[in-house]
Amino acid sequence: MTPALFNCTQQCLFCWRAQSGDIQATWNEMKLPPWDSAEDIVEGSIKEQLKILSGYKANPKSDKRKFNEALHPKHVAISLTGEPTLYQNLAELMKRFHKKGFTTFLVTNGTNPKALTELEEEPTQLYVSACAPDKTTFTHTCHPQIPKAWNKLNETLTLLPSFKCPTVIRITLARDLNMKNIEGYAKLVQKARPTYVEPKAYMHVGFSRLRLGFDSMPNHKEIKEFATQLATETSYNIINESSDSRVVLLSRLQKAIRFGDG
């Protein structure tokens, strides 16, 4: 889910969402709307989860165990589209989810460090997209819509060690775009000291197809090679991977922390 549907500080080439100008419609993505209350968003999210499940109960092909689990969600990814730290009641949103027994998985592009410093409630896990190793690649890949975005991303990375929750740096990689300068990525990782680093392949889906070609999508072998080199540069270890999703997980832990298994 997302509390900031049409608002973002970046227009990343690899992003699947509809950006201003993609659908013969333009809007100012930095003009913030009147925000819904945190309570309305939480209750609305749960309501919509139940709505999308309608029809599955009577379908004989449905997995009944999975259906019953889906009726009682316990994890929320605040990440679907837009930049969630633009939402002014973010801490209250997470607090309300936590009170209902949810874990919260907050994903940010890191360009709004002030919002992170003002959080009164930490997410269960904090996920920062750092998809360029240097300012030039960042500007070309992520198309920031605010001044000093690269500096602000780096400021966010310096904040990560202060969080008590597990932290993640995600690196979405597109062939012939940002799969270079591994030493630069390593410096970002060393600055942030995240719990995990997640190199993953760009997927040729959604509106990103208007910006990048199918050949921009790396295969898993390329992602594994990138991850292996990054592991060497950072002294992180490869602890997991998924060839279907074209993603590799790095950490200094022996295995990933798991939440909500009980």
Detailed description of the structure:
This protein has one domain: Aldolase class I (TIM Barrel). The chain contains eight helices and seven strands. It has helices spanning 38-52, 64-70, 90-99, 113-117, 135-142, 149-159, 182-192, 220-234, and strands at residues 75-78, 103-108, 125-129, 167-173, 196-201, 237-242, 247-251. Strands 1-2-3-4-5-7-6 form a seven-stranded mixed beta sheet, with helices on one face. α7 (182-192) packs across α8 (220-234). The two termini are 23 Å apart.
Keywords:
15% strand, 262 residues, single chain, alpha/beta, 7-stranded mixed beta sheet, TIM Barrel, globular
Provide a compact summary of the structure:
The chain is an alpha/beta fold. It is built from eight helices and seven strands, in the order H-H-E-H-E-H-E-H-H-E-H-E-H-E-E.
**CATH class categorisation:** Alpha Beta
Order of helices and strands: HHEHEHEHHEHEHEE
Number of discrete domains: 1
- The percent range for strand residues is 5-15%
Question: Strand count, sense and closure of the main sheet?
Answer: 7 strands, mixed
User: Which whole number gives the mean pLDDT?
Assistant: 95
Number of distinct helices: 8
Q: Architecture in CATH?
A: Alpha-Beta Barrel
Structural class category: alpha/beta
Give, in spatial order, the strands making up the sheet with the most strands.
1-2-3-4-5-7-6
